[in-house]
Write a structure and sequence with these properties.
The protein contains 16 helices and eleven strands. It is α+β, with helices and mostly antiparallel strands. The strands form four sheets. A four-stranded antiparallel sheet has the order 2-8-5-6. It has a three-stranded mixed sheet with strand order 4-3-7. Helix 4 runs antiparallel to helix 12.
């Protein structure tokens, strides 16, 4: 992100201050380029919290254009990517709209509104309010104890296998033996047409058992075996997916940190029930409308994937020099860099000379135990600062045991490498200090 005010950063955030060679927004967009992100991923270390080391960060690649072209590129990207982001935000409203649409369909279907015209032309019985216990042969839950596991066998699923509203047996990470499965009560063995219902944690998620493949499940999932003479599997499924059932579930749930619907409460949940022929018509109409919603969702997924590809494609085009016209009058990036390097070198030289000149003349005697630059480490001065803390230039020179010329050259080298820096206190009259970076 681009900072819009002054502030402080934690060690996990590195502020980058552009110099005269680069436009800040141009740098910002380069840091979002797939090539740079791939470099960061390849050079980062650590597992739980990957980090890009300082050395690798300084060596990170950068594509540099002439300064005026950088500004044109940044301006163009500002305009285009703002439109891309607005498009993404509008597109991302679609899943919520589709969710509301499906809920509205279920509410109309299970209240009789969806089939009102069908019912008006026929002599059919009135709807009845019944409990789930009245329309199911059994309502129970899964294993309360962790089953003995085997390497291969019958899949044992958790809520993760149903939390998106579809039964996904392939998400099973544990298995039980055939012998263990056969010992389960018939009411706890899923059959084609049964309905699973989450009763712990993410409660009130209904899922249709749409396979004959054997599997078993944990106690966080309930299993409802519908009495097909009274209610169809799909009508039961859609009835359990309504907000009405979700609200009833919340009312009977126990616990605070983790809500749980007791089986006694689940069995008492109430749905509105028409006759079987009307149930079949309602299910048919629901599936027509849901099929329409599914097609819209598929179109949304394709559009969203296309939008996600736009930003990397635009950045790639920008840093290939193809997004904006190039101007032969622009100062080449190579010339710009050389000029900036020269200016930085002159600035550093003046700065270090100023530090050396601030040493009082009475201390101009060279330290007795002399060292030369050939005998010291490249981080000689910064090592002293690390050990002793911030020092004035005079104190650091004395501690370095270097003659004044060697000290001057060593100080310049270590500052150029970013090993140390000069700091100023709030008091303008206070001595300037040198410290490690």
């Amino acid at each position: 992100m681009i900072a819009d005010s002054e502030g402080y950063c934690s060690t996990e955030i590195i502020p980058l201050k552009p110099n005269q060679a680069i436009e800040g927004r141009f740098l910002f967009y380069w840091l979002k380029h797939p090539f740079f992100l791939d470099y960061v991923e390849s050079e980062s270390h650590g597992l739980n919290m990957p980090r890009l080391g300082t050395k690798a960060g300084r060596a990170a690649p950068l594509v540099l254009a002439p300064l005026n072209e950088q500004r044109r590129i940044a301006d163009k990207l500002d305009r285009i990517l703002a439109k891309v982001e607005a498009c993404r935000e509008r597109c991302d409203r679609i899943p919520l709209l589709l969710k509301r649409f499906r809920q509205a369909v279920l509410a109309a279907a299970t209240s009789g509104q969806l089939s009102e015209d069908w019912r008006s032309s026929r002599d059919v019985a009135q709807w009845q309010s019944v409990s789930l216990n009245d329309v199911c042969l059994s309502i129970t839950d899964g294993d309360h104890q962790a089953p003995p596991q085997v390497e291969k066998g019958i899949p044992f699923i958790t809520i993760a296998a149903i939390n998106d509203g579809k039964l996904r047996i392939d998400k099973a990470t544990r298995f039980v033996s055939n012998e263990y499965f056969e010992q389960r009560q018939p009411s706890r063995k899923p059959k084609l047409g049964d309905v699973l219902f989450s009763v712990t944690g993410s409660i009130a998620i209904p899922v249709l058992v749409d396979t004959d493949e054997p599997f078993t499940f944990q106690r966080h999932i309930a299993i409802l075996k519908p009495d097909l003479s009274k209610i169809s599997s799909l009508f039961l499924l859609y009835s359990l997916g309504t907000k009405k059932i979700k609200n009833q579930s919340l009312n009977v749930a126990t616990g605070t940190a983790q809500l749980t619907i007791p089986l006694s409460g689940l069995r008492k949940l109430v749905i509105d029930l028409p006759m079987k022929d009307e149930q079949d018509e309602i299910v048919r109409r629901i599936e027509v409308l849901f099929s329409y919603a599914d097609r819209l969702e598929a179109q949304y997924q394709r559009a969203r994937a296309h939008i996600d590809r736009l930003t990397p494609a635009l950045l790639d085009k920008a840093f290939r020099g193809e997004l904006v016209p190039q101007d032969p009058k622009d100062e080449p990036a190579s010339v710009l860099l050389e000029r900036i390097r020269s200016e930085i070198s002159k600035t550093q030289t003046r700065k270090i000379k100023r530090l050396i000149e601030s040493i009082p003349s009475q201390h101009s005697v060279v330290p007795v135990a002399m060292l030369t630059r050939k005998k010291i480490q490249p981080s000689h001065l910064s090592a002293i600062l690390k050990e002793r803390g911030p020092l004035t230039a005079e104190s650091l020179w004395t501690a370095s045991q270097l003659d004044i010329d060697d000290f001057y050259d060593q100080l310049k080298d270590e500052e150029t490498q970013g090993l140390l820096r000069e700091t100023r206190g709030e008091d303008p009259n206070a001595a300037r200090l040198l410290e490690v970076t």
